[in-house]
Design brief:
Layout: H1 11-30, E1 35-44, E2 47-55, H2 62-79, E3 86-91, H3 102-107, E4 112-121, E5 124-134, E6 138-143, E7 146-151, E8 155-160
């Protein structure tokens, strides 16, 4: 299915692979007290790159990412879950992570987010609010005491909001 030298371009094939990898990786990271945010599959040149984003309360450090990279890679190689050669990258979400998939929105419920809309809503195209809910279809944010529901296709970009302390 993913033979050497084959470039994955079909979004449905990438999504299927990401879903399969999430199902495989999630129990491994949960056993270490971590939370799987997402798995992204892409290409850099001819090389497949699998990016795994992890988090836990209080955040994770570089050493944890390195340890989990070894653990995940070892299990993936034993199970031969990916036929093609690949690079595995394990990351933390970062302070201003972009949210793209429903799973990512659900992982950050309760956090402040900055939303940029495809079209203006009540005269605003950009807003900051607290992410209250997220499901497969869209999300709800609290902006200035008002709950607003947006379907994902109305969103141009959403990222975690971070205001520097200075």
């Amino acid at each position: 299915m993913f033979g050497t030298g084959v470039i994955i371009v079909q979004p449905e094939v990438v999504k299927e692979m990401e879903d399969r990898l999430e199902e495989f990786i999630e129990p491994l990271v949960e056993a270490e007290g971590l939370r799987l945010i997402c798995v992204d599959v892409g290409r850099r040149g001819k090389k497949m790159v699998i990016t795994v984003c992890l988090d836990r309360k209080g955040g994770i450090d570089v050493d944890t990412c390195a340890e989990m990279s070894e653990e995940i890679s070892r299990h993936m190689d034993v199970e031969d879950i990916v036929e093609d050669s690949y690079n595995l990258e394990v990351t933390s979400p970062g302070l201003q992570r972009s949210l793209r998939k429903p799973r990512e929105y659900r992982a950050f419920v309760g956090r402040e987010v900055e939303v940029v809309l495809r079209q203006a809503f009540e005269g605003r195209q950009k807003m900051v609010g607290r992410l209250l809910e997220a499901d497969e279809d869209g999300m709800t944010i609290l902006v200035e005491e008002e709950e607003i529901v947006f379907p994902y296709d109305a969103l141009k970009r959403t990222k975690l909001y971070y205001k520097p302390p200075w």
